[in-house]
Design a protein that fits this description.
7 strands, seven-stranded antiparallel sheet, single chain, alpha+beta
């Protein structure tokens, strides 16, 4: 079961970074190349505990849908989302946030997942899927960092 752990330093206040990480609109903007779109559940604004989001996107040339549930929210420190249905056998994505002495925010992602199809899924992880998922998360974090630091976050719904 792969586990991807990323650390991203963002030169913005904790509250802004926390809310941007919960923003449906920022998520869609950050993954435009996959045509990522929220199509059911919460479709705009900031996700809250107990809400679901159904995403539609194109990965590996195939249109896919994935529904996740926001299972835990501790304002400005942590939130998690978990798979309800979709291509993975299981996933949990934890988002951790901490203020740094210099006024920046450290964002830590832990994406723990299990691919379907037994040994074929494990082979896919080894060959390409873990790298693909890491790049997607890095791209999203880079976009979030840029949006937080340049002030364009103020234009997003819910912010």
């Amino acid at each position: 079961m792969p586990k991807i752990v990323l650390h991203t330093k963002v030169n913005a206040p904790l509250e802004v970074v926390f809310d941007l990480a919960r923003s449906i609109d920022l998520h869609q903007d950050s993954l435009q190349h996959t045509k990522e779109k929220a199509i059911a559940g919460r479709t705009t604004g900031l996700v809250e505990e107990g809400e679901t989001v159904t995403w539609e996107a194109v990965h590996f040339g195939i249109k896919q849908q994935l529904t996740s549930l926001i299972t835990d929210v501790r304002p400005h420190q942590f939130f998690a989302d978990e798979l309800v249905s979709g291509a993975f056998k299981h996933f949990r994505h934890e988002h951790h946030f901490s203020s740094q002495e210099d006024g920046s925010t450290l964002m830590k992602d832990i994406f723990d997942y299990d691919s379907p199809l037994g040994w074929l899924g494990h082979l896919a992880d080894f060959l390409f899927l873990e790298k693909y998922m890491t790049r997607l998360l890095e791209q999203r974090n880079h976009f979030l960092k840029q949006t937080a630091e340049d002030g364009s976050w103020k234009e997003l719904p819910g912010m």
